[in-house]
Amino acid sequence: MNHHPLDPLGYTALSEGTRGGSLHAMLVRRLGQMIVSGGFAAGDVLPPAEELCRRFEVTRSVLREGLKVLSGKGMIEARQKTGTRVRPRAEWNHLDPDLLIWRFAAPKLDDVVALFELRRAIEPEAAALCARRADPAQIAEIARLLAQMEATAEDNAAFAGPDLQFHLAILRCTGNDLIGSLSGMIEVALLISFRLSDDMAGDQRHAIPLHRALLAAITARDETAARAAALALLEGAEADVRRVINRSLERKEDRS
């Protein structure tokens, strides 16, 4: 998969484990990815500190701080006498941005389904609330972002930035601070969606009418239409990503 044009804006920065390139961040990222990928399964006891320090070329203090971060994400727990153990996946904080990034580094179709189920649970209702509460200046900002999308629809790299901001603006315009606080998590979900569809052939002109319909519904204060337009957008995006995943699986089968 090609390097995503949004990586400099967010995806790679988010995937740096704890927002940086330090030894501490490297340890969190590599060990976290190993756990997510099954290298260390639920119930497994991690190797002794000496072995982990040698494997990752870090000091005990760096290891200790890194394990604290992973513990805070619900992934591991330290037990007296038995060592540090990987917790069951059901106990992980799956909405943690790092966990989302690690999980979708090599996604399966089930992961894609889960991602879009999450987005469908939030974004259509956010669109309806935006239609009810957004003020004229906020609607004008959403319209400005749509104009940028229309101007860049033939360039996937240029299109991705305003597309991301379009969706985040709708969350911020709901008038609900709790939903607005979800924008960071939704941003990661959107970046993942963009990355998964990176090698889709063609451009984004097919997505413009769906975004126009959403803006029209918000402008008209039509909550039902806004909800339906947001859902249609998500269904189209999921179909695109499913095609990418299926194509990738077919290529792997052809090579085997």
From TrEMBL:
InterPro entries: GntR_C, TF_FadR/GntR_C, Tscrpt_reg_HTH_GntR, WH-like_DNA-bd_sf, WH_DNA-bd_sf. Transmembrane segments: none annotated. It holds the Pfam family GntR. Keywords: DNA-binding, Transcription, Transcription regulation. Residues 21-89 form the HTH gntR-type domain. PROSITE patterns: HTH_GNTR (PS50949). SUPFAM superfamilies: GntR ligand-binding domain-like, Winged helix' DNA-binding domain. CDD domains: WHTH_GntR. GO terms for molecular function: DNA binding; DNA-binding transcription factor activity. PANTHER family: GNTR FAMILY REGULATORY PROTEIN, TRANSCRIPTIONAL REGULATOR, GNTR FAMILY. This is Transcriptional regulator, GntR family. It comes from Paracoccus aminophilus JCM 7686.
